[in-house]
Design a protein that fits this description.
Strand content: 5-15%
Number of helices: 9
Largest sheet: 6 strands, mixed
Distance between the termini: 50 Å
CATH topology of the largest domain: serine acetyltransferase, domain 1
Shape: globular
Strand order of the largest sheet: 3-6-9-12-14-15
Number of strands: 15
Structural class: alpha/beta
Low-confidence stretches: 1-10
Oligomer: single chain
Order of helices and strands: HHHHHHHHEEEEEEEEEEEEEEEH
Length: 269
């Protein structure tokens, strides 16, 4: 079975308490959404239950109803609790790194990057269970709903932030570490030359700028930073900033770029 990289074991309870409080306040302020907020968050019994309810309703289609999908989500969360732990860390990552986020409700209910990533986590679990057709169904629905295309076999760590998310593509043999941040238009793709292990390996704490293309079975070292619009075709050392087409080192070393979301470079001008 494909497994998540080990996470620090963050408990889901604190983020769940905050989410319910945020939902209750929002329901008071916006009565038109009170019923929706009660169903999606306030009346749910736990973070996994709220996730399974909300994500199943989003992914449901004429081909498979929300109730059936919710049972699948529940099975995944029960069999692999690391998935909900990863989701809690993902949600906290959005709060920590996105200054536009007002509360936990925004990413949980609306942000495409968070929602697509949680759909992928269940698709990845299904892939590991040998249920490839259903995994591809969820991948397809994620692509239709969020314009995010992540192959079910791709392994993605926890505490991952996908900002805006439109146009993100992650290939089958890609591996993404913990605490990574990426923006819209990022591609972790192949070069078209091979058919086996052909996609990038992204280290912990990496920042991938908008429109960055990382191609081939290459490694981006921990806490490296890839500038927006860059095309990366070779390995990048840890804590190195690269930019350009093809990407080259620029601006000196960087520290914790995924946490700071600092996309500026000191190029000595």
């Amino acid at each position: 079975m494909v497994s998540l990289p080990a996470s620090p074991g963050v408990q889901t309870l604190p983020i769940w308490d905050r989410l319910r409080s945020d939902a209750a306040r929002a329901a008071e302020r916006e009565p038109a959404l009170a019923g929706y907020l009660r169903a999606a968050v306030i009346d749910q019994q736990s973070f996994p239950e709220a996730l399974s309810f909300h994500l199943a309703r989003k992914v449901a289609s004429p081909d498979i109803e929300a109730g059936t999908l919710r049972d699948i989500w529940r099975d995944a969360y029960r069999e692999s609790p690391a998935i909900t732990d990863a989701a809690a860390r993902d949600l906290q990552a959005v709060l920590d790194r996105d200054p536009a986020t007002r509360s936990t409700l925004q990413p949980f209910l609306f942000f495409k990057g968070f929602l697509a990533l949680q759909g992928h986590r269940v698709a990845n679990w299904l892939w590991g269970e040998g249920r490839e057709t259903l995994a591809f169904f969820i991948q397809s629905r994620n692509s239709e709903l969020y314009a995010v295309d992540i192959h079910p076999a791709a392994v993605i760590g926890s505490g991952v932030f996908i900002d805006h998310a439109t146009g993100v593509v992650i290939g089958e043999t890609a591996r993404v570490g913990n605490d990574v941040s990426m923006l819209h238009g990022v591609t972790l793709g192949g070069t078209g030359k091979v058919y086996t292990d052909r996609h990038p390996k992204i280290g912990n704490g990496v920042l991938l700028g908008a429109g960055a293309k990382v191609l081939g079975n290459i490694t981006i070292g921990e806490e490296a930073r890839v500038g927006s619009g860059s095309v990366v075709l070779s390995d990048v050392p840890a804590r190195c900033s690269v930019a350009g087409v093809p990407a080259k080192p620029v601006g000196g070393a960087c520290v914790k770029p995924a946490q700071t979301m600092d996309q500026t470079f000191d190029v000595g001008l």
